[in-house]
Design brief:
This protein is mainly alpha-helical and about 180 residues long. The protein contains six helices and no strands. It has one domain. The protein is rod-shaped, with a radius of gyration of 26 Å.
Length: about 180
Amino acid sequence: MNLTLRAPISDLKTAAVKIIESAMQVEQTHTVRAIEALIDRTEEGLEAHIAERTDAMDAYFDGLRDSEEPVRPQKTAEELAALIRPALRFDGRTIAPAGRRPGRVQEVALKSILNPSWWHFNVNPRWSAPIEHRLGEPLGVKIAAENWNEAAAKISSQSRELMEHQRERLTSTGRARP
């Protein structure tokens, strides 16, 4: 049995590129779903983390309100830093402006937990690394956001952009690339 291909090589290359593009599209659709599921699970974990810290602070300040001992800013700062993991860096000067009222000190501590710069520094590497691993290369940008929804949208957008570049690199047939 003698099989001879009579199609020009350029047609075979074009067909191969179309097959590769189609396979990559299927794989990347699956990857997008997996990334979005990871983002959703991370959001749930972040909400649970914040709830745990808030509950721990509430219990701490309930005990502080019931205490006869006066509020000392430095001691409060040390106890809060030990209570909240990862530890927030409080010092007496941070808490002192809140006065000696436990409720006001609690507001200062809660604002620190919800501060986007603290969140970005402590949480972002934990959820971007698995996404980068799935994509097979770094996203190439540091995601900075004011809130979770903005961060999730940015990571999703950057992931899709990276996948598009990957597809272009693999399927390029000598065309000029950006």
